[in-house]
Amino acid sequence: MMCDRHAQARVQLEQEKAFGNDAEKEDAHPEARVPAPPVSPEPPGVTTAGNDAANISNHTRKNRPKQRKDEKDSCGNLDKPFYASEVSDHAAKNLSNLTGGVKTQKGKSETNGNYVQGPRNPQEACSEEAVKPAKKRRPVTVDSAKAKTSLEALKLSIKQLKWKEFPLGRRAACDIYWHGVSFHDNDNVSSGQVNKFPGMIEMLRKINTSRAVRTMQELFPEEYDFYPRSWILPEEFQLFCAQAVMQMIHQGAPLIRMVKEKDATLSPTFIVKPDGGSQGDGIYLIRDPSELKATVGSQARQGVVQEYIHKPLLIDKLKFDIRLYVLMKSLEPLEIYIAKEGLTRFCTEPYQEPSQKNLSHVFMHLTNYSLNVHSGNFVHSESQSTGSKRTLSSVLYRLAAKGVDIKKVWSDIIALVIKTLIAVVPELKVYYHAEIPPGKPGPTCFQILGFDILLMKNLKPVLLEVNSNPSMRIEHEQEVAPGVFKYVPSPVDKEVKVGVIRDTLRLMDPGHKKPSIYQLRPGGLEHSEEIPMESETPERSPDEGALPSLCLKQVYPKYAKQFNHLRLVERIAGLFIRFLGVKGNMRLGPTAFRTFIRSCKLSNSNFTMAA
């Protein structure tokens, strides 16, 4: 019985093909067509059964006016021959019925198994598609099990986006993994996206950041004049002592390059920062190298000593700094976004130029929130423009009211951010390729960074440091009773940080990702002139209709032409990665070094292994 049905199906298909071929021949003779009957707005369904279906389909083909190949239908789509879809669709339907297959068909099925064909008019088909609701996309999944202090802001962001959160993790893979500290918070991630880069913590330690920026200062001194002169401890302790003494003898102004005003009454002041310190821990000021606490117990203290920035810009007689949130959306190719809104953190004691008497006044000289929050003068404000923590826009508004060119300030800050990341990217790529070698399955990465920037009195921005894990907490610690502290909501933090996290997620939405035409070269080396330029705002999905516009502005590659000449060290890093040889390795061994020397034709002699 089944064989008879299959045989009947094959005969049916051959007949349908024959009718299609006849229709092509008949289309060549327009005079043979029969005028088609008028079509009603809602034509009744045509019941077809057996071979009669082919005859009715053939009659419809002959009655349809011929269209040119490039003619468009009422929906704006290029129209294909009408009969082609009818023959193939109807043959498939009859084959399904004959073989007992269960398939969803367009139109309706009667109780006798015959098929009732729906309207074929193009305008009606277009109107049907317009009425049909858009296919609801699968919500993006976010693993927040390791989010730690950023959890509350992350939860609010996911809720606003109508995405799906997995606070306890998930056995199946998620689209996005949100880590609180490092890439290695969860080592079982092999796909999706992680909000941390491998090696970012190491690269943004104070010593490594200082070393990277100093390398660029040697290559491009005028481009990197936004970073104070610094010495690495303990290895440059003797050099620091010698240069500090010479400076004291000559009673010169601070050595920082951007200060042009000479003030002979100022003697040098230095600020000491431990390498792995955070939240102001271990920072102190000195005026003499002998005051340096060079050791911790029996071990040499690793850190950086920098020239103290004199003449900072003051508001309400208070020193302040800027916390700017920067998204590194991609490492290869390099893609950087800057948040349009940031925070300003104020000292809680009126500023005076450093002297031997006030060096220990941390509430006067250090802008760290974690220190000043314990001052009796710290002001928690519901307003974004008052208190000890304010929005960046409120401060810029006050400066603009005094005639300051805010566009110039923003331009200088953007340049500082791009140049700083260009300095740290080369070694970051080495870490990245060691952790996720090309060809090895692994997640893609992105990361929110915190730039701490000081504005000088002449409005020149100065880089203080870059934080790999900026605090995204949206509540602050408040003393509710003597010695009793608890966390209460902070409107200023919530306004800024939720927007940054939410719009970072929007930019990383896997549904918005477009295939990149950017091709990586071996070892991750890239040609900057080939960087694709993308619009700042991605297309919104229907779920994003109620969301505000993005608070993150793309600055690279948007302004790539102004900075591509600075990516010299990145090319060197590309060569280094190329000749490493062993995947996951970070050191160039003797064999790899000899290969490098020969390939680059740096020497004609043959090196021995010992040499």
Number of helices: 15
- β-strand percent reads 15-25%
User: What fraction, in percent, of the residue positions are helical?
Assistant: 25-40%
- CATH topology grouping of the domain at 181-228 and 310-509 and 551-610: D-amino Acid Aminotransferase, Chain A, domain 1
CATH superfamily of the domain at 181-228 and 310-509 and 551-610: ATP-grasp fold, B domain
Low-confidence parts lasting 5 or more residues at pLDDT below 50? 23-119, 252-265, 515-539
Structural class by sheet pairing and helices: alpha+beta
Radius of gyration: 34 Å
Per CATH, the class of the domain at 181-228 and 310-509 and 551-610 reads Alpha Beta
Main sheet specs = 8 strands, antiparallel
User: Outline, from the CA principal axes?
Assistant: globular
The strand count comes to: 24
**Average predicted local confidence, pLDDT:** 77
Tell me which CATH architecture of the domain at 181-228 and 310-509 and 551-610 applies here. Answer: 2-Layer Sandwich
List the helices and strands and how they pair.
Blueprint: H1 2-27, E1 46-48, H2 52-63, H3 82-99, E2 108-109, E3 115-117, H4 122-131, E4 141-146, H5 151-161, E5 164-166, E6 176-179, E7 193-194, H6 200-203, H7 206-219, E8 230-233, H8 237-250, E9 270-274, E10 284-286, E11 295-296, E12 299-300, E13 303-307, E14 314-315, E15 318-330, E16 335-339, E17 343-346, H9 362-365, H10 369-372, E18 389-391, H11 392-401, H12 406-435, E19 444-445, E20 447-455, E21 461-467, E22 475-481, E23 484-489, H13 491-508, E24 552-556, H14 568-579, H15 590-599
Parallel strand pairs: 4-5, 4-6, 6-7, 7-19
Antiparallel strand pairs: 1-3, 2-3, 8-13, 9-10, 9-13, 11-12, 14-15, 15-16, 15-17, 15-20, 16-24, 17-18, 20-21, 22-23
Helix pairs in contact: 1-2, 1-3, 2-3, 5-13, 12-14
